[in-house]
Amino acid sequence: MHRTRNEDRGGDVTAAFTYCLGSSKSGIVFLSDVTYELQSINPGLCRYRCDNNSENAFVLKRALTINHTWTDGFDVLRQPGENYAFTSPDIFVTEDTRAQSDDDTTVPVLETALYFDEPAYRKFSEYFRHDDEHLADMILAYVNAVQVLYHHPSLGKRVEIVLVKLEMFKKQPVDLPHYNGERNLLLDSFCAFNKKYREKEQWDIGLYISGLDFYAMENGHWSGSTMGLATVGGVCSEKYSCIIAEFGSTDPLGKPYPSAGFTSVYILAHEIGHSLGMHHDGSSNSCPKEGFIMSPSRGITGELSWSECSARVAVNLNNLECLFKSARRSAAVQKFDHNKFADKPGQAWDAKKQCELLLLDNDAKAMGTETNDLDPSQQLESICESLQCETPNRPGYYFAGPALEGTTCGPNLWCEAGKCVKGKPKKPQKIIKGGWSQWKVHECTSGCIHKSKGFRLRTRTCNNPKPINTNEGCEGPKHDSVLCKDDKTCQKSKKIMVTEYATAKCRELGSILPVLDNEYSGLQAPHEEARPWMGCSVFCRRKDTGSFYAPRLDVSNLPVDPYFPDGTWCHSADNGNYYCLNHVCTPENDLKRSSKSLTDSNDDLPLMINQNARPPGPYAVPEVLLRYFSVGSDGTPLLTTITPDMVDRTDYGDWSSEDYVDVPELRPQDVDQFM
């Protein structure tokens, strides 16, 4: 059914409304000097944005022309092989994301252009299986999470972040060299790029989001502690309205920085604060140096609110005219508007997805969501302050920072401002538990080591069905190994001794870990029933202690295998042989044990070891871990047992900024870096 109603209310207002039964409603309102369009909000957006009376939810926008057509998404500028770009001439700003004020003109609006560089695109695109729309959705959740912080009551004044441009670089533009992350050169490069394109479209601030590990040369030494760089008070400047920030960065050993995963939200919020005029807390002001977003150090827990010093800057944002020139604040609902998450991005990007993004690992999950988790102290409600993650593919655990706003932290509970509180009721969601696909069996391969066999890798996928509305994946390993004859793969004359393999592997590991002495032969340790990984781990001589060390934790985040290949002979007992399967020394006929995953097989090892990147500075493997993973030259272990209380559980959150970078034409200390 289709109806149109025209109504004339005097000479000042004329309105026309149209609705189709079961479909959308729209209308036009003509005033004497302006024309407005109305459009009912689609159900998908209402799921996030509307109150219970969603049937009467409308968007009001100023019409650019009488014939202006309704649009449901950004203009997509995309051709095969080109960069992926979204541009928005009109941005949707709804009532619940505006400041709670009767006077809408007092709300600062930060019109933003965001560029996702080629290193970041390459890093995340593979994880998202080259689905650009899914990747863009993640970026929008990231931006919305930043806006959540700028809506925090402690700021005293809400700031709206409106995305007017989003571009992902499949190939780095020739006029935007990234200098491999050298922070000063990169900032200068992006500021010039931003100024060039900002002249036409006039956004307030440009964001360069990078997958690089930013660095600087300080006193002749490489320093990689910088995670963002911005000019203090640069937001309304043609030359300095530009920010660079890391996203997804890791240290040289692949361990995640505080700028990895959604923890990077706090890096970007911090840098935007600088651009708005905020200095570090405790720097030329009386606020505490720690505990707030503008702290000079960035941890991976807490620091969710603004200090009084930051709030004083926010109050004075009314003096920045560029934040109140709202030409782009008309109300066309945009498919790629980050406000679709309604300041609750954790509802769409749950705890498991946040862990997956941190580690770029589909098997990662939040600790505390299952009864058999390794850390019983990580309760689900605590994720709002500090989300801990684990994966069966790597030992240890990882801090992912505070869970996103809106993340479910219990029945009818969600995270809000770092606390687990009662959430708004949602419609019951059907939970579908995941199921495994059939095993895919690969060809027989072999390390061709004396007395050893070959192995066949078996893999399966958790997609039969795919788990829906649950943080839990499929139970059991996604891959395992089974033994096979390697006669066709290896000839006896080509098989090498196990020491030869270990020595070659130690040379490879020594090129990554300078503490290993790659001039010495590697060795295979004797099998231990209590530690079945011993006979399958490669042990290399350390320069500092002279003992032989298995660097299992050191390289666990790199595509480097510190183990002997599956199928390697590792022990014999009761007239039977043992072989390495899934890095565990396993009786040949023990099929049950051979199907265990890496984490499950570490029965003896309390994996409560933080695997996040450590701040710059001297670091030595704790003595207890050094001894636990070491043997003497005769293979005798230095330490055979370890308990959780013996392990350092520091969160390694003290990433601090100690200096400023001067910029010509600005007063001293006007360029600030976050480290």
Automatic annotation (TrEMBL):
<keyword id="KW-0964">Secreted</keyword>
<keyword id="KW-0482">Metalloprotease</keyword>
<dbReference type="GO" id="GO:0004222">
    <property type="term" value="F:metalloendopeptidase activity"/>
</dbReference>
<dbReference type="InterPro" id="IPR036383">
    <property type="entry name" value="TSP1_rpt_sf"/>
</dbReference>
<feature type="binding site">
    <location>
        <position position="280"/>
    </location>
    <ligand>
        <name>Zn(2+)</name>
    </ligand>
</feature>
<feature type="binding site">
    <location>
        <position position="274"/>
    </location>
    <ligand>
        <name>Zn(2+)</name>
    </ligand>
</feature>
<dbReference type="InterPro" id="IPR024079">
    <property type="entry name" value="MetalloPept_cat_dom_sf"/>
</dbReference>
<dbReference type="GO" id="GO:0046872">
    <property type="term" value="F:metal ion binding"/>
</dbReference>
<dbReference type="InterPro" id="IPR041645">
    <property type="entry name" value="ADAMTS_CR_2"/>
</dbReference>
<feature type="binding site">
    <location>
        <position position="270"/>
    </location>
    <ligand>
        <name>Zn(2+)</name>
    </ligand>
</feature>
<dbReference type="GO" id="GO:0005576">
    <property type="term" value="C:extracellular region"/>
</dbReference>
<keyword id="KW-0479">Metal-binding</keyword>
<dbReference type="InterPro" id="IPR050439">
    <property type="entry name" value="ADAMTS_ADAMTS-like"/>
</dbReference>
<dbReference type="GO" id="GO:0006508">
    <property type="term" value="P:proteolysis"/>
</dbReference>
<feature type="active site">
    <location>
        <position position="271"/>
    </location>
</feature>
<dbReference type="GO" id="GO:0007229">
    <property type="term" value="P:integrin-mediated signaling pathway"/>
</dbReference>
<dbReference type="InterPro" id="IPR000884">
    <property type="entry name" value="TSP1_rpt"/>
</dbReference>
<dbReference type="Pfam" id="PF01421">
    <property type="entry name" value="Reprolysin"/>
</dbReference>
<dbReference type="GO" id="GO:0031012">
    <property type="term" value="C:extracellular matrix"/>
</dbReference>
<keyword id="KW-0378">Hydrolase</keyword>
<keyword id="KW-0325">Glycoprotein</keyword>
<protein>
    <submittedName>
        <fullName>A disintegrin and metalloproteinase with thrombospondin motifs 3</fullName>
    </submittedName>
</protein>
<dbReference type="InterPro" id="IPR001590">
    <property type="entry name" value="Peptidase_M12B"/>
</dbReference>
<keyword id="KW-1015">Disulfide bond</keyword>
<keyword id="KW-0645">Protease</keyword>
<dbReference type="GO" id="GO:0030198">
    <property type="term" value="P:extracellular matrix organization"/>
</dbReference>
<feature type="domain" description="Peptidase M12B">
    <location>
        <begin position="108"/>
        <end position="310"/>
    </location>
</feature>
<keyword id="KW-0862">Zinc</keyword>
<keyword id="KW-0401">Integrin</keyword>
<dbReference type="Pfam" id="PF17771">
    <property type="entry name" value="ADAMTS_CR_2"/>
</dbReference>
